[in-house]
Amino acid sequence: MDSIRIRRVAELLKHEISYILANDVKDPRVHDVVITGVKVTADLSLARVYFSSYDKKSLKDLEIGLSNSNGYIRKKLKTAVHMKKLPQLVFETDRSPEEAGRLDELFRQISGENEGNEV
To answer: Where are the alpha helices (DSSP H) in 1-119?
Structure first.
C-alpha cells in the first residue's frame, strides 16, 4: 500500500514541477528542462528530481538554474500539492540515457567476441 502512495506522490510531484518550470520559472537557464522522473523516499522527506535537456552542453547551467529556483518551486508546490509535509527537492541530472548507450556498446562488444569464437 505504501509503495502505491509513494509512486502516486512521485508522479504528482513530477507533473507539478514540470508545470511550474514550464509556466512560472523565468530563469532562462531552465527553459529546455525535461523532468524525466522523481523518486521519493519512503518517509516522504526527500524527492530526487531527475532532469535532462535536449541541449546536453547546457546541463551544468541547467542544474545551477534549478538549484537557484528550488525555493520558488517549493513555494509554488505548497499551493498546488496538498500534503502535510512537502519533501525536500534535490535536482539531479538523469544519466540513464548515457548508461543505456554504454550498456548497448558493451553488449555489442560481447556479441562480436562471441561471433568470432563460434565454430
So the answer is: 2-23, 59-80, 96-117
With H, G, I as helix, E, B as strand and everything else as coil, classify residue 37.
Answer: strand
Is the four-CA dihedral 59, 63, 68, 72 of positive or negative sign?
positive
Interacting residues of 50 by C-beta distance below 8 A, sequence separation 6+: 35, 36, 37, 38, 39, 92, 93, 94, 96
In the chain, where are the structural domains located?
2-94
Q: Per-residue pLDDT tens, the chain, 119 aa: give them.
A: 468 999 999 999 999 999 999 999 998 888 888 999 999 999 999 999 999 888 777 788 888 999 999 999 999 999 999 888 899 999 998 876 555 556 666 667 777 766 656 55
Q: What superfamily would CATH give domain 2-94?
A: K homology (KH) domain (3.30.300.20)
**Residue whose C-alpha cell reads 528550488 in the numeric block:** 70
CA distances from 24 to 30, 31, 47, 48 (A): 11, 11, 20, 20
Q: pTM (2 decimals)?
A: 0.78
